[in-house]
Every structure is written in C-alpha cells, then in structure tokens.
Amino acid sequence: MLLLAAIPLLVLQQAPDPDVDWDAEFGVEAEIRDSITGELPVEPYDRSNANAGAAPFAGDSMAAHFNGQPGIRRVVDRLVDLNLADPRIAAIFAGHDTVRLRRTLFEQFCYILNAGCDYTGRDMRASHDGLGSRKGDMNALVENLQAAMGEEGVPFAAQNRFLSKLAPMSGDVIER
Amino acid sequence: MNGPGVSASDEAATEAFLPPDQAAEPFAPSIDYSGKLLLTNGVTTIEGTSGGGIASWATLAGMEERGLGISAHATLVLLPDFTWQSHGVAASFGNRIELSYARQNFDTNDAGAALGLGEGYTFSQDVFGAKFRLLGDLVYGEPLLPQISLGVQHKRSRNDAVVAALGAAEAEGTDVYVSATKLLLSRSILANGTLRLTKANQNGLLGFGSAAHPDYGLQFEGSLAYQFSRRFALGAEYRSKPDNLGLGEDGWMDLFAAYAPTDFLTLTAAYADLGSIATFEEQRGAFLQAQIAF
C-alpha cells in the first residue's frame, strides 16, 4: 500500500535538468589544454637543466646505447604505457597530464643521457609533490623502465648506469 | 558529459592529443604494492640470515619493503670429507628488522671414525638471528652511502660434551656484527663489508673459544658480486675466522652464481673453499642452495 501511495510522488518528481553545468555551479575552473601542445597549464616555475636532478653523462656512448633520441622516445613512451597499464602504480599516473609527462620525461632522459636536449620540466620534488609515492612504487617503476630499456636493446650494464643517475633522486620522489 | 577540468567547447580539440589509453581508462584500481627489486633480498647464509652464502650482508630477507617478508631455504655443501646441510626460515618487517632461525648439520662421514667420534657422527647447532637496518638503502639514495645493519646471532651447539672434549670453552655463543652493503649501479657491482665479533670455532659447530683463547675476536667478511641481468649475478666472498682450538682453522671463501628463475625463487650454486676443518685439509666443494621468498 505504501508503495502504491509513493507512485504519484515519483511521477510528480521533477527530473534533474540534464543541461546543468555542474562545474560552473560549483565554481570549478575549467583547465584548457594548449591548442598546440595538448598540455594542461601548470603554475609558473623557473626552467633550468638543474631541475633534471642529475648531471648528464659525458660523451655520447650512453646516448648510443639508447639508440639516440628516437630510441629514448620509444623507451619513454613504452615506460608511460607500461605504468598506465600496471595495476601496481597506474593510480599514481591516472590523474596525471600524460601528454606533458611524456614530453618532460623524454627531455629529462635525453638530457641526462647527453643526447642533445634541454630539460624544461619542474624539479623532482615539485613534480612528485602530493603523489604519495612509496619505495614499492619506485621499484615497480624501475621494473617497467628495465622492461622498456630491454625492449629497446639497451645493454644491462648501460641500463644500470642510467639507473645510477635516477636512484639518488629517491629522496625527492618517495614521500612515505 | 563534462569531464572535470575540461570544458565541452575544447573537448573535441583535445581529444586528438590524448593517447587512447588515457582516454579509455580514466582511473585504474590501486593496489598497495611494496615489493622489493629482484635479488635485493640476498641469498640466505649458512647462518640463516640474508647475505651472500657465507657472508652476512646488510640486506633483509623476504620480498617486502613495508610489510611482512618471509623466506625459507635449504643448503647443501658437499666437501671431500664432510657434508654440510642447513635449513631455516627468516622473516622481516618493513625492511627494517629481520628474525631468522637455521639448523646446521655437519656430517663427518668417514672422518668421524678417524677422529674417534664414530662413523657419520654429526655436529649440529641452532642459530637464532636478529638484524636491524640502521640506515641507508641498498639501491636508492646517496650513491656512496651503503645500507648499514647491525645483527646478532645466538648459536647453540647440540653436541655439548663432544665440543667440550675438543677443547671448546663453551657450547653456546653470540656473535655481533655490523654490515655495510651497496649496489653500485654505475658499475653493476654489489659490494659488502662485515665486521664480526665472535669466538665461534668453525662457525660454532665446534663450540666457542677455548682455554687458551676465551675472548671475542674481530673478524672480517667481504663480498663482491657483478649483476649480469635482473635475474643473474656472479660473485666472490671471503670470511676470516679465529683459530681458537689450534687446529689450523682457515678463512672461508667462495665463488657463487645466483639465479632467480621466478620472482620468488633464488637458486645459488657456488664453489666453496672452507680450508682445513678438524685437521682435514683442503675442504673444497660445491655449495648448493634453494631459497623461496615472499
């Protein structure tokens, strides 16, 4: 009986207006991707190669092991793809601007490997701030990077040499 | 539909920039992953703690960075005149503290008869270990700051009367050691140095100290290993030992190969030179070990 009595109320109930812009209603500012780069805007910061967090290798042997800029590009794209598909750490990357991540990560790797790039991203502490990364997350990322480098044919000793430039950054990357 | 932060007007324009993986999967489920990198839990030592086979390292057993890590091992050392067998378990928590237990059985085979102990007489002891990681990280952080751990090993011989007859002062003893271990990624080399205060005779199997040498002595353990791949490493170790009983006890050394066929299993094969044991010279042979770790 109660159910029957409720039916007129349900019929009378007004359906929500499907055209309400809830972002506007709640004052959420729209972030607009750059029409050329496709990247979301970031707060201004000082650009410097020092933000890469490591001094580049001397000479061009490391760049050669990575098959130059095209090889570094493949390693970075593969690394980002593996991370996004990796249930261990995908959540860390899910809310991220991966367009910008692919560009800045490429610049960082290319700069450190002395393959002829400048790094224009933020420093390691700023770029990892608030991600809540732990050492296990870093280990998962290292494994994915090893897989990406392996697929590119980078010799294991050269992989480790590259990791030796990244490993000291752990203090700025790991938060908990 | 409006996604957060992207207005309807430019959504079509930005869609082209978004990689398909990102567009299709807005959020992935998170799991609380805290696993270690392969081989960074080391190879269980003959004393049951994480290390390189005969030398203890600053590493901790198990494959967990944050939670409870567990490992179990079985070791066989085949020597000309003796057979060494040991097995045990170790657990670590938060990659900070490790507790371990190992049982060692040292079969004298034919030598037992020659020593007047009887054919196949077996020396046994229990080793209870605790290790605490003080500072540093094996892989990350400062390249020149190793992982440093402090450990204790309490050993109890199960042959009290015989080790006393051999001249040992005590049938049980406690070792204290400090280890520094680092994976030098730029060279793919793992280096370890350990300083140990001990009075153990042949690791404690022949008791501890003697009437002439009742005190603790400082001993050294060194290891160098080269990492050929994520799953394979070759290394060498040396461990100095006291000669309290005056039997000409030598330092131990080994050349080892460690291979991880899966993420949970490490197989180690070594050529071990344990020198003179109970007056039987040139005890060189094969060290074989299987270790599972989670």
From TrEMBL, chain A:
SUPFAM superfamilies: Globin-like
The protein, known as: Group 1 truncated hemoglobin
The keyword Cell division appears for this protein: no
InterPro entries: Globin-like_sf, Globin/Proto, Hemoglobin_trunc
Pfam families: Bac_globin
Species of the source: Qipengyuania spongiae
Keyword Transport: yes
Keywords: Heme, Iron, Metal-binding, Transport
Automatic annotation (TrEMBL), chain B:
InterPro entries: DUF3034
Pfam family, one: DUF3034
Domain of life: Bacteria
Name listed for the protein in its UniProt record: DUF3034 family protein
Protein species of origin: Qipengyuania spongiae
